[in-house]
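for the record, two folds in this file. i put them one after another cuz i was lazy. first one right below, seq on top, structure tokens after. the second one comes after a little note so u can tell where it starts
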Amino acid sequence: MPSPTEEPAPGGSLRANQVIAASVGHMVHDIFTAFLPPLLPLIIAEFSLSMFQAGVLNVFAVLAFYFNPLLGMLVDRVNLRLLFVAAPGLVAMCMSLIGAAPSYWAVCLLLLFTGIGSAAYHTIGPVFITRSAGSQLGRGMSFFMVGGESARTLGPLAAVGALTWLGFGHMWPLMTLGLACSLYLWSVFRRASTVGATGRDPESLVKVWRALKGLLLPLLGLVACRSFVLWTLMIYLPVYLVGRGYSVALGGTGLAVLELAGVGGAFLGGWLSDRVGRRPVLVAVMLVAPLAMLAFNYSSGWLLWPLLAVLGLSVFASNPVILALVQDHSAGRRGAANGLYMGMAFATSSGVLVLVGWLVDMLGFQTAFAIAACLGLIGTPFALRLPLSTPSE
């Protein structure tokens, strides 16, 4: 008779069904969260928003991530698989109703609930990947992030298609995809558990921070600087391209090109980090991505598209590497460590987006993008301070 919960994958084995399911769930989940950037020009026009107000929308979308450290601590103590499997359905419902929202504040409320589902999935998902991937953690995280990055490619295209065929205010049938995904996740993870099996009692956040601050302090600096490239492009790229004279459809296509290249970057980053180490990959990313953003900002015509591809390949390569790095150093406290990282990452990203929105209002898109790229370069010294070695369990 099967046990009510499953043990982590042994030794070097990789539990493929769970890795694939978590990655598919990540894809479906992020398809819907990727609706916001291509819909942003329409939301701005509908409610006559400034760029600062547009940046505040994303603050609501990531507000729940401020509580990720607490959620991560809870993951180590209580089995939160139900919250994990419900997240894609919740996010799909909220994002497919944005076009029907009657006011700016209604959009903010929908984004707040979207953020709750997103915080749950992105905090719990890496814990399940760690327990399913065995010794192939970089590879497992790559699959997980490929799911997310492929969704960010498909999401803008799906949003443009939904606008064309259904209209801005009638996208609600799309929520069935997210609900079906939640049922699929339940079928795979119904006996899984988020609670650790290392024999170590869950620790307080203060103890976790003290144990991991040698990693988390430089990582915080790196993530903050990376946000000036990553999140500026993810949220403002369609509006930026529309401001340069391109159509809304081409703005969404530009984001799709960035994210499609990001699929390759996500897979390549994790694969390389298993072979050459986490730190060398992150140092390379923090050099290449900001320089590519500067080149993109001052280019025009057909050159924009290959530069977007280089940007996507480089900046998204960091995602699985950072997640694997956090899990490498968090034995027995995986949920709390991942929650601390996610809380830091999204707290900094929301501040960055509001700042960039203010810079756009004050200085224009080109100057704001140039400043963001230069601030991104400051992340290189932080990457050089990350630990080279992985502690034993």
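(here's the note) second protein begins now
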Amino acid sequence: MNYIASTLALSALLAAPASAAFKLTEVSPRVFSPREGNTAISRAWFRFSNPEGAEVTIRIFDINGRLVRRNLEYSGADMFWNGRDQGGALVKGGVYIYQIESGDKVLTGTVVVAI
């Protein structure tokens, strides 16, 4: 690669849009039932774009702010919560708060566990 091509390639990398950073694209379903056999509705899926391969941490809290689960499981580029606490026990039905951290971004939202 010659000097001009190298300089242009570097300029393109430096001018890359902010969308190249971590971005949460979907949390689905917002209401899920861990006892269902169908994984499409028995888990809350956290789908994101992570082109830089930054570390992603997701924590789940109950409505009182108590940490219920961290270090969710990966399935390809997505992570999911199966409605179980850190010890592996099924949680009670109700509203749960998720907190997603990647780099300097912190995103929060809610999911509902229907038992």
